[in-house]
């Protein structure tokens, strides 16, 4: 199967983990921002996490450089546009991009200006390429509960104008869901859909709590439901969709190697899985690469890929019209 020309859908992609290295260099030169190097290959060494990365926390350190150049409206718009352009070139037909607005306030931008800039970059790409998208606002688990309320309150005006959902991300500790019950409940009340990073490190119970306490409709990663029967069962019974990212999961040591990834076992047991990049630059990957990995490691058939594509359409936070459009691409598979 030639995945480079197959229609694809991505539901889990971080904006700051998917910045072109050459864009970082270009912006830094123009704005006098200090980098470890202005050589593209050297910057890639700084940005890309190796497959033998030690942990999720070590992986997350790769995001510090991109954040330096993501502090203006113009730069946020450009970086978002380029991400959608890159995805469209490999025949991704729909993508949900997530980012944490509060990481981009260092030069004085308001949360509203930040969100608007990202939406503008996406809309411009939609006009130029055969791709549709939506934005997910991430709240940082390492920040206060008040910061999550701020993202929810200031983000609500953009609902149905490009923003569709709320997320919790960053370093994962046991029991984090209890801290954020109230802001996520408020988000649901306003109309945000809910996807939560959970079970990316060895804590399957976090997935159970994300579903039961936060109303998560989708789970980012969810690898460690394999070690928590209650979490496994609730995901399967409620058909909570897992946004799985094979390369990233090897890098963060959620699994030691691709052949040990549970995505195919989950799929065969009736759990709804999707394939995603997580971070195109930090994981040095594309949707084509991720689909190739799953297909090659587990001998995935055409029909199985169609099912995963359908899972992605149904689980997306797109409107009905967009979903109908995406379903028609199945005719090309």
TrEMBL record:
SUPFAM superfamilies: Metallo-dependent hydrolases. Substrate binds at residues 14, 16. InterPro entries: A_deaminase (IPR028893), A_deaminase_dom (IPR001365), Ado/ade_deaminase (IPR006330), Metal_Hydrolase (IPR032466). One of its GO terms (cellular component) is cytosol. Gene3D superfamilies: Metal-dependent hydrolases. Pfam families: A_deaminase. Zn(2+) binds at residues 12, 14, 197, 278. Its EC number is 3.5.4.4. Signal peptide: none annotated. Residues 7-328 form the Adenosine deaminase domain. Keywords: Hydrolase, Metal-binding, Nucleotide metabolism, Zinc. One of its GO terms (biological process) is adenosine catabolic process. Its cofactor is Zn(2+). Belongs to the metallo-dependent hydrolases superfamily. Adenosine and AMP deaminases family. Adenosine deaminase subfamily. This is Adenosine deaminase. It comes from Sporosarcina globispora.
């Amino acid at each position: 199967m030639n995945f480079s020309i197959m229609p694809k859908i991505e539901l889990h992609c971080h904006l700051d983990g998917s910045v072109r290295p050459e864009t970082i260099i270009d912006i830094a030169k123009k704005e006098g921002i200090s980098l470890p190097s202005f050589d593209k290959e050297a910057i890639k060494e700084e940005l890309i996490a190796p497959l033998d990365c030690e942990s999720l926390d070590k992986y997350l350190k790769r995001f510090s450089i991109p954040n330096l150049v993501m502090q203006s409206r113009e730069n946020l718009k450009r970086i978002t546009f380029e991400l959608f352009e890159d995805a469209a070139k490999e025949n991704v037909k729909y993508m949900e991009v997530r980012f944490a607005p509060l990481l981009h306030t260092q030069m004085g931008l308001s949360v509203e200006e930040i969100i608007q800039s990202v939406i503008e970059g996406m809309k411009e790409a939609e006009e130029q390429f055969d791709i549709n998208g939506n934005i997910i606002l991430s709240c940082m688990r390492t920040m206060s509960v008040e910061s999550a309320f701020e993202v929810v309150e200031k983000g609500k005006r953009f609902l149905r104008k490009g923003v569709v959902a709320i997320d919790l991300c960053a370093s994962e500790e046991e029991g984090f869901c209890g801290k954020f019950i109230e802001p996520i409940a408020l988000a649901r009340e306003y109309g945000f859909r809910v996807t939560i990073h959970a079970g990316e490190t060895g804590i399957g119970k976090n997935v159970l709590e994300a579903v039961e306490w936060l109303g998560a409709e989708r789970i980012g990663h969810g690898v460690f439901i394999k070690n928590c029967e209650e979490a496994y069962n609730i995901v399967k019974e409620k058909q909570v969709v897992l946004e799985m990212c094979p390369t990233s999961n090897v890098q963060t040591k959620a699994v030691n190697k691709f052949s040990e990834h549970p995505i195919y076992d989950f799929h065969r047991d009736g759990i709804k899985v999707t394939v995603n990049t997580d971070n195109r630059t930090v994981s040095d990957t594309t949707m084509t690469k991720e689909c190739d990995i799953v297909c090659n490691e587990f001998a995935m058939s055409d029909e199985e890929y169609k099912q995963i594509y359908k899972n992605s359409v149904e689980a997306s936070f797109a409107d009905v019209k967009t979903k109908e459009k995406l379903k028609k691409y199945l005719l090309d598979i």
